[in-house]
């Protein structure tokens, strides 16, 4: 039975899961959820994710929500397939640290900026300049730490590409299409790392999904 | 015998207490290293070397230094899978997936409103920062929605991830403790039947009682 991902191609959280599946060359069925029509808040979907958010995931009898829990499950359950996205033993501790950093330090400011500068205009809403300024300042501080980190380490978690890098891809890509790009361009190590991970073939496949809709 | 692990930071910090609870559940010896936050020690170069974001906790075990409380907890559980509470973070992939799901839910959905409320209600008054009534109201509403979801989940499940107390439940202890004590938000929990049962059960654990004692003495 094929794995299923319930979500939307524009959902950054869903894209995290698609990226993982493509990196590992795993077959899956994409089940679109019509968020415009509020499908994610209806009973049928709430049975898969009581928080009414995408994505939701199925692998046989296993049902999961929270994109970072789904990606970790896939990476462990299918660790011998495709790109190894995690490490064994001690190095895993460091990967785990930087996964948390993405979730709590990067994502908080980055998501707000993505909302203000990209999604709001899609929905015909006005950008709040004060929120942008506040979160650009926060993101700058985070990126300073990233610049120092990437001066000691090729990827966020260590020598190889892992979920600690992959989890950044959806929001990072969106921000690169906004004025926030300047924050990344101003930091050479961060800029090089961003270019490297965005150039991965699996990520191109995720972006191509948008064109198929 | 290996040297005890080191935890940097005050037990009063919610993130530090998350790690302490985990160490106690797993029966892992530790040494608490004070960090004088009132004097800005956590923002000084020596500390930034072990935690570049200038936050507590930081953690050292032999040659490894890590930070982010949830990453530290996972590390402790994986390294000491056979010690103390073995079902805290299962090695079974399917059980682990459920634990991860609720640990992520805690981090992404429960933590933001609850930590904002903890700051506004418990810490701001202590450091003479004016409370933001609008923020309190907004986050009370957000927390309420999350607790409704939890109440529904806990109707059919003893703990969040299943029948056993896990890291997913543990992760909620620090913020919730402050909310129901100094924060005066006890009713939000006691008015929801299953959340009430769950909170009473997890907060009665010996490990958490010890952490609360540590918070009182520092």
TrEMBL record, chain A:
Top EC class, one word: transferase
Domain GST C-terminal: 88-213
Location in or out of the cell: Cytoplasm, Cytosol
Reactions listed under catalytic activity: RX + glutathione = an S-substituted glutathione + a halide anion + H(+)
Keywords: Cytoplasm, Detoxification, Transferase
Domain of life: Eukaryota
EC number(s) on file: 2.5.1.18
Keyword NAD: no
SUPFAM superfamilies referenced in this protein's UniProt entry, alphabetically: GST C-terminal domain-like, Thioredoxin-like
Occurrences of domain GST N-terminal (ranges): 1-82
One of the Pfam families matching this protein, by short name: GST_N
InterPro entries (alphabetical): Glutathione-S-Trfase_C-like, Glutathione-S-Trfase_C_sf, Glutathione_S-Trfase, Glutathione_S-Trfase_N, GST_C, GST_Phi_C, Thioredoxin-like_sf
Family: Belongs to the GST superfamily. Phi family.
Protein name, UniProt field: glutathione transferase
Automatic annotation (TrEMBL), chain B:
Catalytic activity as recorded in UniProt: RX + glutathione = an S-substituted glutathione + a halide anion + H(+)
GO cellular component labels: cytosol
Keyword Transferase: yes
Top enzyme class: transferase
Keyword tags: Cytoplasm, Detoxification, Transferase
Residue ranges of every copy of the GST C-terminal domain listed in the record: 92-218
Subcellular location as annotated: Cytoplasm, Cytosol
Gene Ontology molecular function, alphabetical: glutathione binding; glutathione transferase activity
Domain GST N-terminal: 3-84
InterPro entries for the chain: Glutathione-S-Trfase_C-like, Glutathione-S-Trfase_C_sf, Glutathione_S-Trfase, Glutathione_S-Trfase_N, GST_C, GST_Phi_C, Thioredoxin-like_sf
PROSITE patterns: GST_CTER (PS50405), GST_NTER (PS50404)
Alphabetical GO biological process terms: glutathione metabolic process; toxin catabolic process
Family: Belongs to the GST superfamily. Phi family.
Protein name (Swiss-Prot/TrEMBL): glutathione transferase
Taxonomic placement: Eukaryota, Viridiplantae, Streptophyta, Embryophyta, Tracheophyta
């Amino acid at each position: 039975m094929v794995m299923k991902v319930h979500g939307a191609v524009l959902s950054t959280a869903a894209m995290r899961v698609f990226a993982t599946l493509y990196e590992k060359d795993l077959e899956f069925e994409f089940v679109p959820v019509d968020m415009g029509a509020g499908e994610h808040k209806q009973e049928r979907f709430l049975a898969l994710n009581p928080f009414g958010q995408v994505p939701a995931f199925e692998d046989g009898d296993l049902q999961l929500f929270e994109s970072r829990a789904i990606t970790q499950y896939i990476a462990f359950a299918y660790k011998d397939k495709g790109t190894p996205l995690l490490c064994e033993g001690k190095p895993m501790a460091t990967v785990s640290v930087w996964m948390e950093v993405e979730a709590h330090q990067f994502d908080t400011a980055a998501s707000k900026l993505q909302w203000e500068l990209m999604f709001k205009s899609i929905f015909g809403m006005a950008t709040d300049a004060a929120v942008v300024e506040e979160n650009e300042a926060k993101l700058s501080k985070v990126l300073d730490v990233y610049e120092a980190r990437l001066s000691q380490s090729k990827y966020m978690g260590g020598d190889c590409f892992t979920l600690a890098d992959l989890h950044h891809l959806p929001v990072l890509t969106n921000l690169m299409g906004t004025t926030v790009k300047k924050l990344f361009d101003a930091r050479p190590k961060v800029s090089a790392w961003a270019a490297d991970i965005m150039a991965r073939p699996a990520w191109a496949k995720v972006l191509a999904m948008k064109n198929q809709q | 015998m290996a040297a005890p692990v080191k935890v940097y930071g005050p037990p009063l910090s919610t993130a530090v207490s998350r790690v302490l609870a985990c160490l106690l559940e797993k029966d892992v010896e530790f040494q608490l290293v004070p960090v004088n936050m009132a004097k800005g020690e956590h923002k000084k170069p020596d500390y930034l070397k072990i935690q570049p974001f200038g936050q507590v906790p930081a953690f050292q075990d032999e040659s490894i230094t890590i930070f982010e409380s949830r990453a530290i907890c996972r590390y402790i559980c994986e390294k000491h899978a056979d010690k103390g509470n073995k079902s805290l973070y299962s090695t079974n992939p399917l059980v682990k997936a459920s634990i991860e799901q609720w640990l992520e839910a805690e981090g992404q959905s429960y933590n933001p409103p609850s930590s904002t409320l903890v700051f506004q209600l418990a810490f701001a008054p202590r450091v003479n920062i004016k409370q933001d009534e609008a923020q309190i109201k907004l986050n009370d509403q957000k927390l309420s929605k999350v607790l409704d979801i939890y109440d529904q989940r806990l109707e059919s499940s003893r703990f969040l991830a299943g029948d056993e107390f896990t890291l997913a439940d543990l992760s909620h202890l620090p913020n919730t403790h402050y909310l129901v004590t100094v924060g005066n938000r006890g009713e939000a929990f006691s008015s929801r039947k299953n959340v009430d049962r769950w909170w009473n059960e997890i907060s009665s654990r010996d490990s958490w009682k010890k952490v609360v004692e540590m918070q009182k003495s520092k």
